[in-house]
Structures are given as C-alpha cells and as structure tokens.
TrEMBL record:
It comes from Actinoplanes flavus. It comes from the Bacteria. Pfam families: RlaP (PF10127). This is Nucleotidyltransferase domain-containing protein. InterPro entries: RlaP (IPR018775).
Amino acid sequence: MIEPANVLLSGIVGSTAYGLAGPGSDIDRLGVFAAPTTAFHGLAFPADSVVSSKPDATFHEARRYANLALGGNPTVSELMWLPEDLYETRHPLGDDLIGIRTAFLSAKRVRDSYLGYATQQFKRLEARGDGSFSADTRKRTAKHARHLLRLCAQGLDLYVTGHLRLRLDDPQRFLEFGERVAAGDVDLARRMMADYESRFDTAPAALPSEPDRPAVESWLHRVRARFFEAT
C-alpha cells in the first residue's frame, strides 16, 4: 500500500464497515492527508489523491477531501463516521475533522448523492437482464444490488436523523436482497428504488439546507497552518 506523508485520518471502509464482508471480500482503506502548504505556492499543485491497489487504498489531499465531502459524496463521507475500531490513523486534525462532520451535511446534497449513487448501481443491474449469466457476473450483480439497498437505507436514515450509521443493523436483509435481484428479480430493485424516492420526498429532513462551509474552511486553514514550513 502506498501511503502519503502527513496522513490525518485513515481507516477501513466499505463492506467491512457495513457488516457485509464475507470470506473473500476485499479490504478497502480510505484516508485524508495534508500536502505541505508551500507545495501550493509554485506553478503546479500537489497531487489531489494517492491511489493504490492490492490492497485497495485511496488517500485524498485535505482540500479535495473537503470539497468531495461538501458535495455529499457517500464513499468519501463515511471516513468521518467509522466505528472506532476501524480507524488506523488519527492525527489531532483528523479528530478535529470527525468533530465537524455534521458541518458537511445538507438535505439536498444528501438526497441527491445517495439516490444518485443508488441509481448508478441500479442501471448496472438493469443492463444485465434476467439473471441468466455466469456465476461471476451473478456474484457482482448481488454485490451491486445489496449496495443499492444500502445506499437508499443509509441515505434516508442520514436525511431524517442527521447521523450516518455505517454498521447495518440487519446485514442479512441486504444479503438476501442482493441474491434475489441477482437471481433475476430486477423488478424488486426497481420497486425498492421507487419506494425510497417517495420516502425521501415525504420525510422531514433533520439537515440544514446548506452545509457549514465556514467551519470546514476553518479546519482547512488549521491544516495549512500546521503543515507550513517557511523556506
């Protein structure tokens, strides 16, 4: 795994965090790091992200991470809501990031992002037809289906409570849903999507209309001050 310098926060995300991991599941890692502040003073900016595979790991530079999270990106945002035992690196500024995690939230962005990501998963399922495909494709279809349901369920829960619960209360429900869809019941996924869209439309939002950008900006300024070295 390629890990950049100045990691502020990192941990194990994905299926392990949701409680959906099986014996053959990959271990996915996500993190946020700070580039040296003076690296932004020249003609070119430092890399926004550092990505490696086997093991799978993605690290976003603090500014990019903040912008992705402000946009409601579900994958990026979950780093701030992990169960305690899944964090691997926690710098004081990483703890500060966890402390302002609600500042990134807004009702419209949560709704649009979670339903948008779920729609992407559904289109993958819909393109595969009636389930008469190889065992490997069926396995991937089951995975996409259970993450489709997860995105809808977690997104709505976040929307109405203001808190992202990553660890699923009933993982079996999601696993069984994935198997049913992979067996050819794509209409089950279609009905589920329609149901959650309706529930989003009628549910009272516990989130503000806009994120707290000043709080996020203040955190990023502290990051830049901490990693500034005069030359």
